[in-house]
């Protein structure tokens, strides 16, 4: 009797897809950038704004319909920001722009329409605080994965 029950459970799982991930989007996803652990991390006091900009070495965004950014970030400075952008005709175009501590302080997934752009994609972290108590503030981004979706 128990054997029939186990066979029935296996059959139901095979037919209904128990425990299987939905494969609809996985075939149309391309990982463009992935770095586990710390991507960028720095600290400073309130005496000045600190900005770090780095290339993600991602080009040819026009071949994708959408972009997805998965990451975890933290800052204790209230005016900090994190942006992912490209430069077109001398102008900065933000694909993602988190403009304060509340937007930064959580793990998240952010999606946007992919631009018709073949240049380079950049990451910028800005550490800035409106409060000056002599405290050292911090900003960090971890586990960044950028995926192109069709």
Structure description:
The structure is a single chain. With 150 residues, this protein is mainly β. The protein has one domain: Jelly Rolls (Sandwich), CATH 2.60.120. Helices cover 13% and strands 49% of the residues. The chain has 2 helices and 8 strands. The strands form 2 sheets. It has a 4-stranded antiparallel β-sheet, with no helix packed on it. Strand 4 (81-88) and strand 5 (91-98) form a beta hairpin. The longest helix has 15 residues, at 2-16. The protein is elongated.
Total count of domains: 1
Mean of residue pLDDT values: 83
Low-confidence spans: pLDDT under 50, at least 5 residues?
2-25
CATH topology: Jelly Rolls
Assigned CATH class? Mainly Beta
> How many angstroms does the end-to-end distance come to?
48 Å
Assigned CATH architecture: Sandwich
Percent strand equals over 45%
List the helices and strands and how they pair.
Blueprint: H1 2-16, E1 29-44, E2 50-55, E3 66-75, E4 81-88, E5 91-98, H2 101-104, E6 108-113, E7 121-127, E8 137-149
Antiparallel strand pairs: 1-8, 2-7, 3-6, 3-8, 4-5, 4-7
Please give a handful of descriptors for the protein shown.
150 residues; mainly beta; Jelly Rolls; four-stranded antiparallel sheet; 2 helices; elongated; disordered N terminus
How would you summarize what this structure contains?
The chain has 150 residues and is mostly beta strands.
């Amino acid at each position: 009797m128990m054997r029939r029950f186990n066979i029935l459970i296996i059959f139901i799982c095979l037919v209904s897809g128990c425990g299987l991930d939905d494969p609809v989007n996985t075939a149309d996803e391309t990982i463009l950038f992935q770095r586990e652990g710390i991507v960028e991390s720095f600290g400073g006091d309130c005496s000045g704004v600190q900005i770090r900009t780095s290339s993600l070495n991602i080009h040819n965004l026009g071949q994708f319909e959408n972009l997805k950014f998965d990451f975890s970030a933290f800052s204790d400075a209230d005016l900090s920001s994190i942006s992912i952008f490209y430069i077109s005709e001398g102008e900065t175009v933000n694909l993602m722009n988190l403009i304060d501590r509340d937007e930064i302080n959580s793990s998240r997934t952010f999606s946007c329409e992919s631009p018709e752009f073949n240049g380079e994609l950049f990451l910028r972290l800005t550490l800035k605080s409106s409060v000056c108590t002599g405290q050292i503030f911090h900003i960090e981004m971890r586990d960044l994965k950028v995926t192109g979706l069709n």
